[in-house]
Amino acid sequence: EFVCTNSTRMPSPRKGKRSTSKSSSRSRSRSRSRSRSRKVLKSPPTAERKTRSPARTKTASPARSKADTPTRGKPQSPARRGRSVERAVTPTRRSARLENKAKDPEFKEPLEALPSMDKSKRVPKTTHREFGGAIGSFFMLFVLPITVYGLNIMCDKKSCKPRKMKIPTDLKLFFDWEAAAIYLGWIAFQAFIYLLPIGRLVKGQPLRSGERLVYRCNGFYAMLISLAAFGGAVYLGYPVKKVHEKFIALITTGTIFSFVMSVLLYIKARRGPNSKLAPGGNTGNVLYDFFIGHELNPRIGSFDLKFFCELRPGLIGWLMINLVFLTEAYQKTGTFPPALTMVVAFQALYVADALWFEDAILTTMDIITDGFGFMLVFGDLVWVPFLYCLQTRFLQEHGDSLPWYCLAGIAILNMVGYTIFRGSNSQKNEFRKNPYNPELAHLETIPTSTGKKLLVSGWWGMCRKPNYFGDILMALSWSLACGSSTPLPYFYPVYFTILLVHREMRDSEHCAKKYKASWDRYCERVKYRICPLVY
After folding, report:
1. Mean pLDDT, to the nearest integer, of 159-180?
2. Does the predicted TM-score (pTM) go above 0.85?
3. Whole-Å CA distances, 270 to 263, 285, 366, 518
4. DSSP states along 452-494
5. Phi/psi at 454 (nearest 5 deg)?
6. Which of 4, 317, 436, 455 has the highest Cβ tally under 10 A?
7. Considering only CA atoms, which of 308, 309, 274, 310 is closest in space to residue 289?
8. CB 121 within 8 A of CB 272
9. pLDDT digit string (tens) for 439-449?
10. How far, CA to CA in Å, does 50 sit from each of 47, 53, 131, 441, 486?
């Protein structure tokens, strides 16, 4: 190390007579300067030269840098030497990001590296409204429950055809305490499984603030445990047909539960910080925000309410209701009806697929952009389990028998739809996890200003939403198994097609704002939206 850089300060000779002349003062100054120079020249090698790493010695340039050459008469301070060495060996930010991506497929760039992400945590007011704004949201609060009640009342054991709906006068049909206990017990049972320390912990997409929430993905285990519990109930002789008998009362309990939960979610969002709100549900209008969802990811501790409701109570409940109908049909006839059994198997595969790839839902609009309000709460807890089973309920109560070759064609259509659905979703999920995966090197992409890339080949070169196309084909196959005696079982594929077309339009509008010119190039390359050569 250098000995010193400043000489000792001499006392100021202000008191008394001057002890030296000007010449003697200059001579002392020259002697001190020569002494300081000798100290510098005789000093040992610098710390930089002593501690230079072998890699640094091999790769260093023969020419001395400005930082390595000591200034004449003014040796470098240790702090400056440390900075020069550190600057020389530190990799660039770009190379560090590439190295992290290569090591960890789950690596996400920091907030400064994502130009499309707002560094401000505050969520601005929502200006764009969907579903007709506040007026449309008000009517949807009534239209959705009436639709569920109407279809299930029209399609009963006596008949399943469109007719003038007669509202039953027996109030016990609409509410039953035993039905309420069954529904609430089912919610509590699924919540208990969700809290079990089993399954993978997966990080979600970066939020507006750059934070990434952690989710426990154990939905497939929840399905297996639920199937085992159902099998145990049947083996022990529990009358599972009560679910069928109290079907309307279960809908009432689910509707009341959805309204109460939505009110509590809205109150929680109003009392919470602005940074937690959903970008699309912050209009300031109570009705609209209540319906569309005011908070993006409401949580109680680590319990994520939206993630839990998306796939657990409703989706697994749909499968359980199907099994109730299949069990009841077997207990009546002693055989498994072919059409009913096939549809139950198809829908079980669909549910199992969603739960096996549970982490894929973390990249969907429901989790990333939509708030958790009445629209999603009612959809997850009532609409899915009590409307998606309309085909199996019809087959159990009215059971049209189709010839084997018709069932074979329907099975082929379902498998074609599932192949498109699973293949496109898997390709998308792998690309989102690690765009640098060598297995995806053959795929063509279009770069964007946000740093992300848009797929324009493979499944995603056929159309912009090939997974939606596969979904629609599967929905159609489930209804075709019901025959053509009534149009009511075809409600699901008609509704689902409208839903997916609307969702594609919402997603396209969002991407156009986000990717701008790159999205225009993408639309020129991939012309069809959902169905190749049709739409």
Report:
1. 81
2. no
3. 11, 12, 20, 37
4. -EEE-SGGGGT-S-HHHHHHHHHHHHHHHTT-SS-SGGGHHHH
5. -105, 125
6. 317
7. 274
8. no
9. 888 888 888 88
10. 5, 9, 71, 46, 89
